[in-house]
């Protein structure tokens, strides 16, 4: 029986065994930590990525295309447009209600004018920065967000030039109740908000650190300094040790909180040991600049955010 078998009669059996062997080899290659790239080489299979830098900005999430024939890039753009328009309207309404609330409290003498001014200074900028994630991932989102401080900028110019009266606004955001004050500190403040939203936006720690130091650091320093600042700085009798220490502590803590907020949402990842040291450096440098006797020459709403911006840029990069 075996003598009658020829090589031709073994061909089907041999082909079947060879086919099964190739399938086993293919399956074993899939299970290996390599991916097949060419008939002659293997390339490492991307399993996990380790980020050794203190700052890692993940790529923008790509939009998943639907299998439905009604899904088009135009429809996606229209959805982003509606989202950004709705977010702009919501943030603008929130900002108006916030200022209106402090105007009412000031007019009714529930809180003093200086306290109202600083509470607006602290809360409005921080709430604006916190609202950025509700905007879409489109390239135009930052421009929609910047419309909020731009509207406030136009409002300050109108009332600062006395083109229209608004006693409540003037009492809540000025030191002495002079409309022309709106064209200085408050105007510089909203210009910084516009700049940070347009240039840095959500993908860079520089913008959120700048706003944290300008809003929380500088704002709390004034409140604490007026209330408890009996011991003045030796080189500036207008500033106190309590105010400067408060600026450093609150500017540092709010900056870390803002970084954690955006890091948790996935906009960037940080090596926290290194980031904490860098934020402390930014807070210290901004505190020193704020304590200098240069208020009459350069407004704090210019010197503090610019110092924070440059220091954060040198520490974290763009």
Automatic annotation (TrEMBL):
<feature type="transmembrane region" description="Helical">
    <location>
        <begin position="182"/>
        <end position="201"/>
    </location>
</feature>
<keyword id="KW-0934">Plastid</keyword>
<comment type="similarity">
    <text>Belongs to the polyprenol kinase family.</text>
</comment>
<protein>
    <recommendedName>
        <fullName>phytol kinase</fullName>
        <ecNumber>2.7.1.182</ecNumber>
    </recommendedName>
</protein>
<keyword id="KW-0812">Transmembrane</keyword>
<keyword id="KW-0150">Chloroplast</keyword>
<keyword id="KW-0472">Membrane</keyword>
<keyword id="KW-0808">Transferase</keyword>
<feature type="transmembrane region" description="Helical">
    <location>
        <begin position="85"/>
        <end position="106"/>
    </location>
</feature>
<dbReference type="InterPro" id="IPR039606">
    <property type="entry name" value="Phytol/farnesol_kinase"/>
</dbReference>
<feature type="transmembrane region" description="Helical">
    <location>
        <begin position="207"/>
        <end position="229"/>
    </location>
</feature>
<dbReference type="GO" id="GO:0031969">
    <property type="term" value="C:chloroplast membrane"/>
</dbReference>
<feature type="transmembrane region" description="Helical">
    <location>
        <begin position="118"/>
        <end position="135"/>
    </location>
</feature>
<keyword id="KW-1133">Transmembrane helix</keyword>
<dbReference type="GO" id="GO:0010276">
    <property type="term" value="F:phytol kinase activity"/>
</dbReference>
<comment type="pathway">
    <text>Cofactor biosynthesis; tocopherol biosynthesis.</text>
</comment>
<feature type="transmembrane region" description="Helical">
    <location>
        <begin position="241"/>
        <end position="262"/>
    </location>
</feature>
<keyword id="KW-0809">Transit peptide</keyword>
<dbReference type="GO" id="GO:0010189">
    <property type="term" value="P:vitamin E biosynthetic process"/>
</dbReference>
<dbReference type="GO" id="GO:0009507">
    <property type="term" value="C:chloroplast"/>
</dbReference>
<keyword id="KW-0418">Kinase</keyword>
